[in-house]
Amino acid sequence: MGQVRHHDNFPSTPGKVKMDRSNYFGRVTSRWHSTASARLLGCSALLLAFALVVLFRVSSSSDLGDGGYFSHSDVHWAFKPTRVWEKKVRQSCLPRREDNPMVVLVTGAAGFVGTHVSLALKKRGDGVVGIDNFNSYYEVSLKIARQELLAKHGIFVIDADINDAFLLKTVFELVQITHVMHLAAQAGVRYAMENPGSYVQSNIAGLVNIFEICKAANPQPAIVWASSSSVYGLNTKVPFSELDRTDQPASLYAATKKAGEEIAHTYNHIYGLSITGLRFFTVYGPWGRPDMAYFSFTRNILKGKPINIYQGPNNKDLARDFTYIDDIVEGCVASLDTAEKSTGSGGKKTGPAQLRIFNLGNTSPVTVPTLVDILEKYLNVKAKREIVKMPRNGDVPFTHANISAAQTQLQYKPETNLETGLKKFVKWYLSYYGDNTPHESLVAW
Ligand SMILES: NC(=O)c1ccc[n+]([C@@H]2O[C@H](COP(=O)([O-])OP(=O)(O)OC[C@H]3O[C@@H](n4cnc5c(N)ncnc54)[C@H](O)[C@@H]3O)[C@@H](O)[C@H]2O)c1
Ligand SMILES: *[C@@H]1O[C@H](CO)[C@@H](O)[C@H](O)[C@H]1NC(C)=O
């Protein structure tokens, strides 16, 4: 455990060439796609990218400047909508219910939470289209499998980056998006020490791009997006309430989520966007994230490999307010259902708009050793436990949600305890992987 897979946050998927200038950390990231036919294109694009790197290094100033980032993104993504593509987007967005259906753009749709939320919306008859860049932060095959699952249910997931303004504009022109469920992000706390740029790129620049597109749309959609319980950082008062301070993040991940909440305030204030931020508390379940501890524990226990169990100061066990995916989905859908309309028009605010923040947790923290007990029971294998002092890398010793705001305003009521939820996870894990598990993965909370 603790092995880190090295990768680039912009991996390969077929179809297009993308480059973007990243003026925050003074380097240019590039992503190229590699179907056999696109390979040659990729090579020449690489050369071009190289030339651009040199060019931009020379010409770019270091600050964000007056919209420089966005004015460039149109140029650099070589996306061209085809008839087939347009048809897929339209069909995916077709609602199947009469009573006030929504048409939802789900970002991060090939991700863990995005997949479940997309399915739930589609099942009740809403129109849904997804977007995901299929980056290799964790195994891409799992994201593709989720995409295939969604395709079976009539949901199209566009393979693109949320920073691609031109593509997003094209989607908004093609269909009338009423809501955006924004879940795309660079997740994970520890990986931020390895690849800080990916957090800035997806969680800050990407978020701003989403808000820019929504602001300009007519009518503007309402937005629900994923913040994180990690914004509570070094707080010790429990349970964590939305009224508590959130100005002492313990990781860059947390800092980017906190920044997102402030950026949301700005877009709500200036442009009248209706925005709801959701602070998720350690979400787990079927189709979950391999970089998370419950997942990698399962993997290693089955392989007979030792697992590291971290302890905080004074040998205290770490505890998490583990929240089952179905409960999170309920909270997300209820947020969409109760979201008021944005008030802006033509990029201008016409009146005050809704701005909300909710904790979505389970309200009953469980220690890590207890989590392992439950996994042992359902896997029917004894874990090789290694107790290790928690390194100072961004993890906090415990989380515990106060969910009274979500209870009263969203009728949010978590129903699945860790025991029941892990049983369902293990069942899925064994059916998806057999007991044949692939490779090491980064561990996160
Ligand atoms: N799972 C949790 O415990 C948890 C807790 C707190 C907050 N969150 C937040 O909830 C959201 C969903 O998390 P998840 O667990 O489903 O993670 P996930 O990594 O499975 O899903 C995120 C998806 O977004 C995609 N993505 C990342 N950057 C992108 C970009 N620039 N453009 C397009 N797609 C991009 C990824 O490929 C991935 O499929 C994230 O915003 C995450 O920060 C999750
Ligand atoms: C829970 O949070 C609400 C605000 O959402 C606050 O009014 C209440 O006092 C908190 N309860 C506890 C026990 O901290």
From TrEMBL:
Q: Which PANTHER family match?
A: EPIMERASE-RELATED (PTHR43574)
InterPro entries, alphabetized: Epimerase_deHydtase (IPR001509), NAD(P)-bd_dom_sf (IPR036291)
Q: Which family does it belong to?
A: Belongs to the NAD(P)-dependent epimerase/dehydratase family.
Q: Where is the chain membrane-spanning?
A: 40-59
Annotated protein name in UniProt: NAD-dependent epimerase/dehydratase domain-containing protein
The record, for SUPFAM superfamilies, names: NAD(P)-binding Rossmann-fold domains (SSF51735)
Swiss-Prot/TrEMBL keywords: Membrane, NAD, Transmembrane, Transmembrane helix
Limits of the NAD-dependent epimerase/dehydratase domain: 104-341
Coiled coil regions in record: none
